[in-house]
Amino acid sequence: MSHYNASEFEAAALAGHWRAAAAVLSRVNVKPEVLAGLMTDDAHLEVVLGVLACPDLTADHLAWAAAFDNAQILGRVVSNPKTPASLVREIQQHAGSRDGEVCG
Q: Most buried pick, 8, 34, 86, 103, via CB within 10 A?
C-alpha cells in the first residue's frame, strides 16, 4: 500500500491533473498558493466544485467560479450565503440573456 504524499498530489494538481486537484481540495487545509494555482480559466468542473466546497471560501473565489457557464456551478454560487447580492444579480442578468446557452 502506498502512502499519500501531499506535495506530490499538489504538484500533480498544479500540473493540470484534475483528479489530483480534487484530492487536494478535499483536505481541510489547502495552501493558499495551491488554491490560487488551481483557479484557472479552464479549470475542470470537479476542480471548480472543489474550490466552492472549501471552508474558507471568499467572495473572490465565488466571483471566479461565477465566470463559468455551467448551471451546477452557478447554482452553487447563487445559493452560497457568502455570495454578494450584486454577484447574484449579475449572474441572473447574464443567464437571462443567454437563452438556454448555460451548460448543465
A: 34
CA distance 100 to 21: 30
pTM score of the predicted model: 0.86
Give the tens place of pLDDT for each residue, 40-67: 999 999 999 999 999 999 999 999 999 9
Residue whose C-alpha cell reads 463559468 in the numeric block: 68
Given a contact cutoff of 8 angstroms between Cβ atoms, the answer to whether 74 and 68 are in contact is yes
Q: Which residues contact 23 (CB under 8 A, 6 or more apart)?
A: 9, 13
Query: pLDDT, tens digit, for every residue of 5-27?
Result: 899 999 999 999 999 999 999 99
Give CA separation, 5 vs 12, 24, 58, in Å: 11, 10, 27
- Helices vs strands, H then E, count in the chain: 7, 0
